[in-house]
Amino acid sequence: MNRKARAKIVKNMKYVLIIIVTAVWLSPVYWLVVTSLKTRLDMFAIPPKWDFQPILDNFVDVFYERRYGLTPGPTEFPKFLLNSFFISLSSIGLVILIGTLASYSFSRFNMKGKDTWLFFVLSTRMLPPIAVIIPIYFMYQRLGLLNNYVGLIALYIMFNMAFAVWMMKGFFDEIPRELDEAAMVDGYSRMGAFLKAVLPQALTGIAATAVFCLIMAWNEFLFAYILSGFDTRTVPVALARIRGESGINWGTITATEVLYITPVIIFTFFLQKYLLRGITFGTVKGK
Amino acid sequence: MTVREKTLKWVLIIPAIVILLFLVIYPLMWSLGLSFFDYSIMLKRPPIFIGVKNYFDIVNDPTIWDNFKVTAYFLAIALPAEFLLGFGIALLLYEEFRGRRIVLTLLLIPMMLAPIAVGVFYRFILDSTFGIFTYLLSFIGIEGFRWYTVQWVIPCVALVDIWMWTPFMVLILLAGLTAVPRYLYEAANIDRAGWMMKFRYITFPIMKPLIGVAVLFRTMDIMKVFDTVFILTDGGPGNASELISFRVYREAFQYFHTGRATALSYIFLVMIIVLTNIYLRFLTRRPAQAAITRESEV
Amino acid sequence: MARVRLKDVTKRAGAVCPVFNVNLEVADKEFLTLLAPSGSGKSTILRMIAGLEVPDEGEIYIGDELVNDLTPAERDTAMVFQTYALYPHLTVKDNLASPLKARKTPQNEIDSRVRDVADILGISNLLQKYPTQLSGGEMQRVAIGRAIIRRPRVYLLDEPLTNLDAKLRVHMRAELKRLQKELGQTMIYATHDELEALSMSDKIAVMGNGRILQYGTSTEIFEHPKSIFVATFVGTPTINLFECVLSEKAGQTYLESNVFKLNVTELAELIRDRASGSEFILGIRPSDLEIHTEKPREDHIQGEVYILEPMGAVVVIDVKVGEELVKVKVPGSVTLDLGTKIWLTFDRGKMHVFSRKTKEIVV
User: Fold this and answer.
1) Chain B contact for C268, CB < 8 A?
2) Which chains touch A (3 or more CB pairs under 8 A)?
3) C222 to chain A, minimum CA–CA distance in Å?
4) C52 touches chain A (CB under 8 A)
């Protein structure tokens, strides 16, 4: 049984290789977490310290500053975090609302120029943000929407709309039209049929789309950087302010990052199946 | 379709379309208009119409060509690396094994992180004094590696992109690989075909559309990279890592050549639109694509 | 309880299967079947009656009301879909209750009606289950239950039995017929299965390519098909067709083919009146042919036994006549050796003469 033995060796080698690749690939994340738990001394030690005493001071520092020479007080971070939450959640809530209706219509009805509209909606996803930001900056300036929640939320709605509509249309397409029709014959109006028969079926898909859009809003940087001010600043913008600074407080920064990416990682685990689909615009459907 | 439904279908789409009109079409039209003017937010005078001078200046500006070169260089490193690595890992994960799901989910993580956060942290990793990357390189004989140099800055930025987006390639290519019907391989085995022949005549032809999709999509995305460059290199040293997207930013928000910036952003936009069109056409019209979609299971 | 009338209904645009100039009348309490191969538009007609599609031309009446502009909800019809279209996220009980809930019926009435319907259909034990937990037959009964719970004016059934296995289909055929008679409702049924049509309906409308080709009772359709299409579509095994030519000799008129010569003098005038040309197609059903082991006196067709297909109660014999195979249906007790020479005769009254040109019946 030489072939069998050989196959088994190959299989084991594969396993080892897979483990190595996965470990290597995730090592930056691991290193990030580890760094956030180190003291300043340990952090910069050369050779890098593997074996150290973990501390939570950095995380405390994120929320509560011990400023040298000044009285200690809470940092601005909670405000930034709240801003991130607020802007992401409100914009996505609205995107889902508007997007669900639009994608249902695209799924069920034919209209003049339907393909063109869909093409148009989808192509907005492909826009480079930088091309849009310049005129929008001026627009907002004139309308007084700079450093303004409404302005940012509206923009986030815009850049998530295409994706949401496209994803949800795919989900609606999978629900047989006959369900709508059965409901209408039962006595519901078209919208009644939507609410009672179709929507309950589409909920998982809509939830997945929502989370995906949430992640994109959560991570967004450029629009927030240009259009927000101190009051509306989100965490990514706060992070970016280390640029050009000397003496970066790596402890606080890494701790901030760990805090910020944790929800995303958690959601990634829940969404695994749908992420594949979303990333490839529904061309590839995961099991 | 009753009369009521005729209006309903439009009513449902209108909010979405209106938002896109206001925040995409209108700004873009405005931007196009402004690109024909000489305007700077700094100078306290109104814009002056100068026709296509902005575009002319851009085309004649050697530094702009540098930006194109930098972008091309970046693309030339990142795309093949992502593809080859992605393919390799996809092959590795091709056969079912326990924990495959977990591995795939773990590999998803880099894609889901905020590019800005990743950029911030790679600064730490790549630091020439205390960065772990530099330290590890010393093991293979490269002492005192300094990443923020004209020579290494683009490869390092590419490294970040590769780290984040290779998993994307892995997922797509894996889906493509699993979509190839097994019986084709079995028939080939009976005919005693070697793995290279199997690849050339079975795997590759069937996967071509999907590979096309993946490559196009990544190309578009790579051209739009901004956050990472912003935080990692600020376009430097000098303009050694100034991608086109970053240059637009600089023109608009650092040098305040607003008119010029909009012109450049439009050139950039047109490039992306052309690519997008090719991409979307690829997406929606390939019958092989449909076959793969039907059979894809990851 | 109402009659349904379609007047010159046409739908072209946007319909998967268009229909043209459909005129149909279904009497109150009648069971009408739309019989047609797939894609002929029978679903389209049902959907137009239900209000799910709007005709381009023509009028649809339910009762005496013109319903063209009414929404499905307003038309008071019920439909059983081929795929059942049960709500997967609701229990059987809630599925049944759906039409009543939609019309805001009080809860206690909903409960009692659900109980009644479940009893009638024998699904009381399934009320708490979800559609994904049911078998095909059970799902179908729930779909029927959802239709009858409301006592609508008209029932529309779109190939409801197609997805069931054979034995269940036969059983449900009888069940549906019984149900219809008990409920005393108008039922319009669409199928491509002639057996279903023949066994269940009061009237059948045979369709092809979006048009109604023939309308009548099962007997009328079977025994007096108006066109070759109808004749071949209805009847298993398929009707035997022979190409022949009208000829005259010595004052006698014959229908001649290369395998037989029939004296049709008494029909000659009729034939000439109703059709032009001399090319015809003669049709005889396998069940109308008789087998003789000795040469008979009357007009006959000669052939030899080629294949025997025993089917339990009957045997279908393929007889080689000239270059073609003629199918004959005989009682199962008949046994013959392959290659035996036999002669076929038939009752003149059962023959169908079609004009070759128009494909329509002459006699």
Assistant:
1) no
2) B, C
3) 34
4) yes
φ, ψ of residue C237 to 5 degrees: the values are -65, 165
Residue B280 domain-assigned (yes or no): yes
- Structural domain total, chain B: 1
Helices A2-36, A250-279: axis angle to 10 degrees equals 140
Q: Which residues of chain B have pLDDT under 70?
A: 1-3, 282-298
Crossing angle between the packed helical segments B244-253 and A129-143, to the nearest 10 degrees: 20
User: Is there a contact between B30 and A138 if contact means CB atoms under 8 Å apart?
Assistant: yes
Q: Using an 8 Å CB-CB cutoff, list chain C residues near B2.
A: 54, 69, 71
Q: CB–CB of A168/A101 below 8 Å? A: no
- Please state which CATH class domain C240-355 belongs to: mainly beta
Which chain B residue shows the shortest CA-CA distance from C56? B1
Mean pLDDT of chain C: 85
- Where do we find the tokens 């789309």? A209
Closest to A32 (Cβ–Cβ): which among B4, B30, B121?
B121
Q: Chain C partners of A200 at a C-beta cutoff of 8 Å?
A: 87, 89
Do A218 and B114 make contact, defined as CB atoms within 8 angstroms?
yes
CATH architecture of C4-233: 3-Layer(aba) Sandwich (3.40)
A residues 179..208 contacting B (CB < 8 A)? 190-191
Residue B10 lies in a domain: no
CB contact under 8 A, C54 and B1: yes
Picking from C234, C233, C81, C217, the residue whose alpha carbon sits closest to that of residue C162 is: C81
The set of residues, in sequence order, having a beta carbon less than 8 Å from that of C53 and lying 6+ positions away, is: B1, C11, C15, C44, C47
Which of A44-48, A97-101, C279-283, C288-292 is least confident?
A: A44-48
Does the beta carbon of B4 lie under 8 angstroms from any beta carbon of chain C? yes
Mean pLDDT of C324-339: 82
Kindly list the distances between the CA atom of residue A264 and the CA atoms of A89, A161, B166, C81, in Å, as whole numbers in the listed order: 14, 20, 19, 44
Predicted pLDDT of residue A194: 93
C145 interface with A at CB cutoff 8 Å: no
pLDDT cut 90: percent of chain A above it: 29
B8 and C CB contact within 8 Å: no
Beta strand pairing call for C261-263 and C279-284: unpaired
Asked if the Cβ–Cβ distance from A201 to C89 is below 8 Å, we say yes
Flag whether B287 is in a domain: yes
Bond into C225 cis (ω within 30) = no
Domain that includes residue B60, residue range = 53-295
Lowest mean pLDDT among A212-216, C39-43, C98-102, C105-109: C39-43
Extract the tokens encoding B242. 């100034």
Shortest Cα distance from A209 to chain C (angstroms)? 20
Alpha-carbon distance B12 to nearest alpha carbon in chain C (angstroms): 19
To the nearest whole angstrom, how far is the Cα of C94 from the nearest Cα of chain A? 11
Rounded to whole angstroms, the Cα distance separating B237 from B56 reads 27
Report if residue B34 sits inside a domain: no
Residue of A176, A186, A190 lying closest to C83 (CB–CB): A176
Pinpoint the alpha helices (H) of chain C. Answer: 42-50, 72-75, 92-102, 107-121, 136-148, 166-183, 194-200, 218-223, 228-233, 268-274
Could you identify the residue written with the tokens 């600074």?
A245
Q: Any idea what the CATH number is for the domain that residue B97 is in?
A: 1.10.3720.10
What is the token pair recorded at B47? Answer: 């814009």
Looking at this predicted complex, what is its ipTM?
A: 0.84
Find the Cα–Cα–Cα–Cα dihedral C178, C179, C184, C186, rounded to 10°. Answer: -100
DSSP code per residue over A106-160:
HHH---TTHHHHHHHHHHHHTS-HHHHHHHHHHHHHHHT-TT-HHHHHHHHHHHH
pLDDT of residue C96: 93
